[in-house]
């Protein structure tokens, strides 16, 4: 019923290994990444969004790498 509860369920399904980097494609304002990081501070996020306004409002700092790009042409290695 809450965003935090939804994110907890996503984390259980995803089961990212310790210190994983999560590629958040179409991150919007970054709320999912922020909530995941609150629950799992060991995770890092590459936050991809084509909307510069939203990306500027997304979380910043260590563990949050903003990437302004279209999800169909991301400037990231193929193995990402």
What's the short story on this structure?
The chain has 80 residues and is α/β, with parallel strands linked by helices. 34% of the residues lie in helices and 20% in strands. Strand 2 (44-49), helix 3 and strand 3 (64-68) form a beta-alpha-beta unit.
Question: Can you describe this structure?
Answer:
By secondary structure, this protein is an alpha/beta fold. 34% of the residues lie in helices and 20% in strands. It is built from 3 helices and 3 strands, in the order αβαβαβ. It has helices at 3-14, 31-39, 52-57; strands at residues 21-25, 44-49, 64-68. It has a 3-stranded parallel β-sheet with strand order 1-2-3. The radius of gyration is 12 Å and the shape is globular. 16% of the residues are buried.
Notable characteristics:
80 residues; alpha/beta; 3 helices
Q: Extract low-pLDDT stretches.
A: none
- Strands side by side in the biggest sheet: 1-2-3
| Major sheet | 3 strands, parallel
Query: Which structural class fits the helix and strand makeup?
Result: alpha/beta
Average pLDDT works out at 94
Distance between the termini: 32 Å
Query: Strand share of the residues?
Result: 15-25%
Work out the helix count. 3
Strand runs, count: 3
Overall, the morphology is: globular
- Using only C-alpha atoms, the radius of gyration works out to 12 Å
Give the topology string: H per helix, E per strand. HEHEHE
How helical, in percent, are the residues?
25-40%
């Amino acid at each position: 019923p809450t965003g935090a509860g939804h994110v907890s369920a996503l984390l259980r399904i995803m089961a990212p290994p310790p210190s994983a980097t999560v590629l958040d494609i179409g991150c919007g304002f970054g709320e999912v990444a922020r909530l995941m990081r609150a629950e799992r501070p060991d995770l890092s996020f590459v936050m991809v969004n084509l909307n510069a306004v939203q990306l500027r409002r997304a979380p910043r700092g260590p563990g949050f790498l903003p990437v302004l790009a279209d999800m169909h042409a991301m400037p990231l290695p193929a193995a990402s």
